Amino acid sequence: MYNQRSPFKWVAISVGGVIAFAHIGVLGHLMRPQYPVINFPSGDYSSYKVEATRDGYKVEYKANDPTVLESTKSLSVDKDKRGLFGPTTDRRRELRSDQYTMDGTRNLGGATVDAEGKSLAKSEECIRADAGARSQGAMAGTAISAGVVVPAVSSIPYIGWLASGWALLLGQRAGSEIGSEIGSSFNDC
Fold this sequence. Notes:
The structure is a single chain. By secondary structure, the protein is α+β, with helices and mostly antiparallel strands. Among the domains are: 64-118, no CATH class; 124-186, no CATH class. It contains three helices and six strands; from the N terminus they run H-E-E-E-E-E-E-H-H. The chain has helices at residues 5-30, 124-153, 160-186; strands spanning 47-52, 57-62, 69-76, 80-81, 88-89, 93-100. The protein has a two-stranded antiparallel sheet with strand order 1-2. The longest helix has 30 residues, at 124-153. It is flat and about 120 Å long. The termini are far apart. The relative contact order is 0.08.
């Protein structure tokens, strides 16, 4: 006797086999290790090192390598006597080793200073003091302009409302700058 489910069974097994084979192929493709592509900016003074293993990867990147440039100079002077009573010169040996930053500033062992002698690298205390002084100055400038300038300016016809807003903003900005100057002089920054 002929079984009518037999062709359906073979079609189902064939389609299931094709789908199973496709899934195995997709899983094989997905399980292949893929490492991320990282494009580091490269230049004359940058360097990077990448270590990739099965467990992960480690990246070491230096954007300003070498950060300190070194220069070594030596000077040697011999002692020379001219005649019996003649002048003598000293014999000196001098070895000078300097370190420079990339912009050509000589490292003196401390913070880099500009032409006026102010420190270019601000300390954390100076930054905090400047932020506080700016905030206090802005509040004082706004209060002074609101009490003195805004009542006089707001009576201008047609643009009084706009001029009073400008006066508040100008007072806030001026107070912030004045507060910063006063704060930097008090905190030696």
